[in-house]
Design a protein that fits this description.
This protein has 223 residues and is an alpha/beta fold. 44% of the residues lie in helices and 18% in strands. The longest helix has 17 residues. Pfam families: Trans_reg_C (PF00486). GO terms for molecular function: phosphorelay response regulator activity; transcription cis-regulatory region binding.
Length: 223
């Protein structure tokens, strides 16, 4: 089953009709209705969903997180705006793919199938204590629970874990996260990101796994 989410009745009904012509069952929700459904639906109902198709709606950027709490099915956003900023914002919100209208339902089905194949093949992750950090852009997990992080904080955690057991400097972290040619961002912004990351880790774990020493840098390790 494909779940279509769009605040426009015409668009929602149009996609469900097109999927029906392809012999694929589908159902449509307005964003507010969908948010309630995805949080309360039975596990068997959620497991039956092959993909989620997200269109226009005020909650468009919060729905991917709600979906991930219940399902690993592909989340595909349909964008009406040919905008790089919009596309990047959708990916940052947690969608697996972004397509632009008009798009044929067969293409959506093909993209969903490709995402599922990649997910089955993915085993690139690093465990450090109860923390599991992925190398494919997914949020980390702590004790098996998803640990949502903003993009910069997530990439800093990935970099620290990739270099676990040795110290990295603020400059090294900055270059890894922002790139060595970014002159519009001050290097000290790294300290703010790390401070927020450590606060969240401390709250979740009960202690801070990141060690810092003045002039020497940061490291994360588990002994």
């Amino acid at each position: 089953m494909i779940v279509v989410v769009d605040e426009r009745e015409l668009v929602k009904d149009g996609y469900t009709s097109l999927f029906g012509r392809e012999g694929i069952s589908s159902t449509g929700f307005a964003p507010s209705e969908f948010e309630e459904w995805v949080n309360t639906a039975a596990d068997n109902d959620i497991a039956a969903v092959e993909a989620f198709l997200l269109g226009q709606g005020q909650q468009a950027f919060s729905l991917p997180r709600a979906i991930r709490d219940r399902s690993m099915a592909p989340v595909i956003a349909v964008s009406d705006q040919p905008s790089l900023e919009q596309t990047l914002a959708l990916f940052d919100s947690g969608v697996d793919d972004v397509v632009r209208k008009p798009v044929h339902p067969r293409e959506i089905l093909a993209r969903a199938a490709a995402i599922r194949r990649r997910l089955k093949a993915i085993s690139n992750y690093t465990d450090i204590g109860p923390i599991r950090v992925f190398s494919d852009g997914r949020d980390p997990e702590i004790n098996g629970d998803v640990f949502p992080l903003p993009r910069r904080e997530r990439r800093i955690l990935e970099y620290l874990v990739a270099n676990r057991g040795r110290r990295v400097s603020k400059s090294q972290i900055f270059n890894a996260i922002y790139g060595i040619f970014d002159e519009e961002v001050e290097e000290n912004v790294v300290e703010s990101h790390i401070s927020k990351l450590r606060k969240k880790l401390r709250k979740k774990l009960g202690f801070d796994p990141v060690d810092s020493k003045r002039f020497l840098g940061y490291c994360i390790d588990w002994s």
